[in-house]
User: Fold this.
Amino acid sequence: MVSEAENSREQKTPKIPVWDLPDVPKGELPQHIQLQRTRVHCTFDAPTHTENVQYSGAYAAMGVDNSLRLGEFRKNFKVEVIKLTEDDMEFDMIGIDAAIANAFRRILIAELPTMAIEKVFVANNTSVVQDEVLAHRLGLVPLQVDPRHFNYISENDEPTEKNTIVFKLHVRCERGSPRIKVKSGDLQWLPNGSGFVRSTEKSNPDSTSKTKTYTSFSSSQDSLPEFVDKPIAPKHDDIVLSKLGPGQEIELEAHAVKGMGKTHAKWSPVATAWYRMLPEIVLLQDIEGEKAEELVKKCPVKVFDIEDFGKGQKRATVARPRSCTLCRECIRGDDWETLVAVRRVKDHFIFTIESTGALPPEVLFTEAVKILEDKCERVISELS
Ligand code: SF4
Assistant:
């Protein structure tokens, strides 16, 4: 039985992690092991040391703690935005594992919802593009609308102003006119819902009820504050959907709903989301004179420069390492591998997001963070 005195002594003594105890050796990894731990080495044959050492006791024999500590992670983790435009964003994520960077990439591609055309009601199509192909092309048109204003629709749900966006497309090429292009800009938003009458209702002559269409909107979408200043439309007006010859016509209604990229790529909010590790190019010796000029010529993306260090003597320098594409031309042949080291930093990712237009790229990333957070919370609650 623990006495009261012992109990209070325990409460007063702060808990110290084993690695912080004074008699545990505070070793440092030898330089070559530290390099293997933190860098991918790109030799001419193949990259080596590509794995991440996860095991907390991997370097215990050398007195080095390899466990992941939240405090350390918080201190080291950084996000630096390098470029931000309306549709593109490039940023550096520093101090993170490849698995987490990849989780963001996968969430961005497959788990962030958008609105995309799912159902197409074709009233007339005499163009050379078949109905199915036209419907597929319509589905891939990016729509400029924030999906957070809409709900998901299930098979048995009625299409309402909260889960469906309706577009009308009616283009005709008159006889005697030159051929015309049908473009995404011809899609007209119908804020009051479908204008097509359901055939079952129409064919019932005794029906006194109101004419039923393919949607049940209780209010107009353009009266909603979020769409007053920004009407719903395709992101780009110039996507060619079909071409019409004289006398040909397309009349249809397209219904867009909320979905995710894992169901179909048309719902993916990004054209692409990708990352690469930060390149690190190191000159292992001074490279001077003709050899320096040869090195500059070897690199197709101009990573190296020549520096004049007096009396016409020239020396190679690494000027633009970030541009390196890992083509490994600079280490091809002779003794170049002993002069130049091509490496990648394992915990520094150059991340690029190209939005299709539904949401700005910086919003897409913050939404991806929220989804990952939700997933982590779900796992914690399941385990506890
Ligand atoms: S690997 Fe290719 S791109 Fe990178 S520095 Fe060498 S030559 Fe240039």
